[in-house]
């Protein structure tokens, strides 16, 4: 009898974490590697947030808290949803977990029965399908091509819904593409959902504050109030506040769902760190003036990467509306040969070639469900991005003309 559970055969390790770890290992071994795989801002956590955590430690705020969040943090989240998103939640409609990933996982574990379907637009964040599979559900992928701006179209959503559909997971701005839905685009999708009362909406709004060129962020329950009782609005402090390591995610939703998610969490991790929760209160209630300055840096980096990669032979890089990723097409390098004679057959082969040839690590598009593309995170220094893009252009220039 095998020690390991058969359900583990359904899933794979996170490809983004694998690429990040590989880049670290190669650097430790002395290789000159630039890692562009991690979705992690290079900015530091603002001082007022760090000060709140230090104060919490010194004040002895180091004990267990309520399983799914302290009253202070829940009230801060209630205020955030009200002030920034026009959503009215009470404290018992709020849940706090150890990162946004746990929030999503709790919701799926609390709601999916064997065979329930979850609609996932592709490209998607790598963890969505595996979390659905672990919970016994069936991921239903809907291709969102570049011609559609990497966004889900209403007709395609309608076609994907069946009597077994329980959730739609919607991520805007998107990881991996940076694509963000306008209010009108969201309204077209919510109109479809109104016709299917069995379908609930899980919105991953983690990159809410990272939008550019005057884009206005909206979220489904805000756009269509009739979906309020069928929506779990998920967010966190990781990206906008540069708090990835603090591990705080949160959500607002229907009371029965929030209670069920707390039940799952009570038998897994229990409460998030008390110190991280105190820091998150400071993040959500404190000044946001740093966001504009950091977003301008991200915008400049986005424009740099888009321009530079579009100069690479065989690559086409669309300009995204938000987040800190680009999702370039590498279709133009497929079928070409490396200096070692290997034919580039896929985005995975291209990523492997670039890493070995010029020391730049990024994640292949197959990990996100739409090929032939690859994801680059520009949440790193401008100097590193300039160097990395120059190396990628060099690697593309070394490929010969084909088979």
* Biggest sheet layout: 7 strands, mixed
| Tally of separate helices | 13
CATH class descriptor of the largest domain: Alpha Beta
What low-confidence regions span 5 or more consecutive residues with pLDDT below 50?
none
* Rg measurement, Å: 21 Å
N-to-C series of helices and strands: HEHHEHEHEHEHEHEEHHHEHEEEH
CATH architecture of the largest domain: 3-Layer(aba) Sandwich
Can you walk through the features of this model?
- There is one protein chain.
- By secondary structure, this protein is of the alpha/beta class.
- It folds into two domains: 7-44 and 290-397, Aspartate Aminotransferase, domain 1 (Alpha-Beta Complex), CATH 3.90.1150; 61-285, Type I PLP-dependent aspartate aminotransferase-like (Major domain) (Aspartate Aminotransferase, domain 2).
- The protein is 39% helix and 12% strand.
- Helix 2 (47-58) packs antiparallel against helix 10 (274-285), helix 4 crosses helix 9 and helix 6 packs parallel to helix 7.
- The longest helix has 21 residues, at 289-309.
- It is globular.
- It starts with 14 loop residues before the first helix and ends in a 6-residue tail after the last helix.
- The mean pLDDT is 96.
